[in-house]
Amino acid sequence: MLTSFACLLVRNGRNASVLSARFPRPQTQRTVLSPWVCQSSTAPSDTTVCQSASKPTNPPLHPAEQENFESLSAGLSSRISFKKSHPDIRDQQHEEEQPERVHRRLPRRNTAYWYFLQCKKLIRENKLEEALELFSSNMLQGEQLQPEEYNYTVLIGGCGRAGNIKKAFKLYNDMKKRGLEASDATYTSLFNACAESASHTTGLQQALKLEEELRRKNYPLSTITYHALLKTHAVTNHLQACLHIVREMLQNKHMVTQETLHYLLMGCFKDKANGFRMALQVWRQMLQSGILPDTKNYNLLLRTARDCGFGDPALASEVLLNTPCQIRAKRNVTSRSQGGIDIDLLERQLSIQPGPQSEGQQDATRGEKELNNSEDSTLALVPVSPSEPTSPNVLDLFEGRISTIVSLSAVHKPSDRLALIGGAEGVLGNMAAKGVSPDLKTLTLLVDMMESGYSSLQVLLKVAKQHRVKLDVAFFNSAIYRAAKASDADGSKSVLSVMRQRNVGVNVQTFGCLALGCEREKEGLQLLNDMEAAGFRPNVHVFSALIGRAARRLDYVYLKTILKTMAEKKVWPNEAIIRQLEFVAQYPPGYDKYKSRNNYLVHVDGFRGYYQEWLKRMPAQSSDGEQEDSEAAGLETQAGEELSEAQRNQRAAARRFQTRNHNKERNNALALQQHSQSL
After folding, report:
1. Where are the domains of the chain?
2. How far is CA 594 from the centre of its chain?
3. What are phi and psi of 505, to 5 degrees?
4. In sequence order, what are the beta bridge partners of 621?
5. CATH code of the domain occupying 112-237
6. Which of 70, 365, 565, 647 is 20 to 30 A distant from 557 in Cα terms?
7. What's the Cα-to-Cα distance from 383 to each of 236, 372, 498, rounded to whole Å?
8. Coil, strand, or helix at residue 92?
9. Taking Cα atoms as reference points, which of 45, 33, 44, 30 lies closest to residue 9?
10. Cβ count within 10 A of residue 538
11. Helix ranges restricted to H, 421-536
């Protein structure tokens, strides 16, 4: 009975004191019940059997002892139910007593490849400094990750494109200290950093050291790495070094492509006197090798035609017009089968210099003449027929489209060199025959060399429309420059009207090109007013163009007006302006103003006095208004400190020229004194 009662008590959760009051105990036994012991039985129903350690026949308790018993069982009798609960609920009563535990989650550890992707993204957005900071601070110092080769390569590539050669090689040295092996992409980026460096001397030195290091390691370079090395020598070295790299490429079984010859043409650009003739020799070798030029090759050829000379016409005629068409055709077929160029022949031809030929040059010329004589006699050079144009196209001659040319005349201007390769229409037709489309740079180079005029501009506008080339303000500025240099005011106005039709806005360079055509004082002042109306401030280049046109006509009234406007607008002169003004302020050579009087030279004296006063106002001044005569003192006024570095340099140039002018005046005074004493 007691066993059933205890089990009922546990299952129903009733108060023990209430249930015990319903069932009175015998008064004969005074034994206190021991705690319940619950044992799990092995019955199939898995019921819990509770047994009491006390005897069922206990005498009744005294009322005082009964209260004591009830107090002992208060903990059990206070619980209403015995349901299962979550461990968090059971431990809830201990939370106030125990201190709160703070579980800090460790930061997520990024991988080296994740940092590679982030740095690559920042470099594409032109955020090189942020990429370097992410690599050094977050990856190396913050998470202390071990970088991989590609982490350094992507940063070296970004430094190379930015021309930061010092940081690029610092990363490379750090990479070697960590025991990482550089890849072809790493060496390509390093050579590209040498090519893009602002200091060509530093870039060449670093490139030669890296090239020597690779030779000691016997590291085989890839074609892309060879092209980066070739670009470095083309920019910082000379053409002979480029030819040496091409020969090494051929020895290592690398194919010569359009990009290879692109860097050879870039190497020709280094020689300002004979660069155009060398570029034509490389172009002929390219066609003989069966390599079709691309847009970049045409752009470099046009660039050498614009900025480089042709050299000795007799030497150019001997070198360029010495190979008949059929011989070139046979060499073309042979080169196509071999897939390379005759680098030895090209080097011998490029090394020919005007004057007495060396033994090697005589052998090369003798070999070419023997090769020409071995062919049919009908291939000999013949005079140009009257039906042929007076300006032969050398590019068509290289391809065998026209008859041979006897000689080449002297060319001096860029337009003459452009006419030698067929002019703008001839170049564009040659490109169309090879399936090459011109780009914006091609059209800009053509407009730089073409004769000024609305008809020439219309030809380029038609080509731009045909090839869907969007023309920018630089293209139209070049057209305005050509028209202004030729004193073609109508041509400049026509270019401006085309710009308005195409909704192309003007910039400061546009007004600088227009200033070259301002012959009169009225035109110059109107240009300055138009600049202010357009929201532009005249800079030193605009005033230099105006001073050049006024000095060309020796209009001293115009010059005084320009100098006065410069002082009013606080545009400080640079060295070019001071040189122009010094030339205008000089007396004619051999003139003695004390023997004869010239009314024209009276204006020179008036300008010289105004020029001296102008120089005193324009350079940096002290707080008391007195001019600083000592440049070595290094004292800068408060107004000078507020100026930019370029303006301070301009003022320093003015002070240097003023000191030189004082020396000239002192020498003239001494000469005058000696002359008076001799009389």
Report:
1. 2-83, 112-237
2. 60
3. -75, 155
4. 627
5. 1.25.40.10
6. 647
7. 42, 17, 44
8. helix
9. 33
10. 20
11. 423-433, 440-449, 454-466, 473-485, 489-501, 508-515, 521-533
